[in-house]
């Protein structure tokens, strides 16, 4: 979305709190972009998030998704109650219901895919197998751990092991 379109839709205000200073576009994964002030993009005091009581009723699906996710991360009774009361558009419900696609990335940020070959960048002691996987070892035909973007599986010295993605680079 262009800056002008985003500013026009938001009325030149933060779509959470209504602030008008230091506005920046913020990506809402799976939904699009919203306009937030620097305070809302940071870590404001907990009382600041009461602004979501108004933002929860936005007609914009992107804002609804962002508010719903933010409320889920606030450990307060009012946030849970507000989240339960939200009426979401069909577009927002579809984004929330869709499972988030995990991206497995190596130590350099390169996207990993099942079947790739990676190289270990550090000696790794393999617990329970009694050996150390040496730096520079190529691991061919990796598998991605479905529920954890920080882990892959591969065979080293005939043993199937779990490897943290921070210790590999794509070949």
Automatic annotation (TrEMBL):
Cross-referenced Pfam families: YjdM
One Gene Ontology term of the molecular function aspect: hydrolase activity
InterPro entries per UniProt: PhnaA_N_proteobac, YjdM_C
SMART domains per the UniProt record, alphabetical: PhnA_Zn_Ribbon
PhnA protein N-terminal proteobacterial domain boundaries: 5-45
SUPFAM superfamilies per UniProt: Prokaryotic SH3-related domain
Keywords associated with the record: Hydrolase
Domain of life: Bacteria
Keyword Transmembrane in annotation: no
Protein name listed in UniProt: Phosphonoacetate hydrolase
Species the sequence originates in: Cereibacter changlensis
């Amino acid at each position: 979305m262009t800056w002008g379109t985003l500013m026009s839709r938001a009325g030149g205000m933060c779509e959470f709190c209504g602030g008008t200073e230091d506005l920046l576009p913020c990506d809402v994964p799976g939904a699009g972009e919203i306009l937030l002030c620097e305070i809302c993009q940071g870590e404001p005091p907990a009382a600041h998030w009461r602004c979501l009581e108004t933002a929860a009723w936005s007609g914009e699906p992107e804002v609804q998704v962002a508010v719903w996710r933010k409320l889920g991360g606030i450990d307060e009774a009012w946030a849970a109650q507000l989240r339960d009361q939200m009426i979401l558009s069909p577009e927002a419900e579809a984004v929330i219901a869709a499972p988030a696609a995990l991206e497995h990335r190596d130590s350099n940020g390169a996207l990993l895919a099942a079947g790739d070959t990676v190289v270990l960048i550090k000696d790794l002691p393999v617990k329970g197998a009694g050996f150390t996987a040496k730096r520079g070892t190529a691991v061919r035909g990796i598998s991605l751990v479905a529920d954890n973007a920080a882990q892959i599986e591969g065979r080293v010295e005939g043993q199937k092991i779990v490897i943290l993605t921070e210790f590999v680079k794509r070949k």
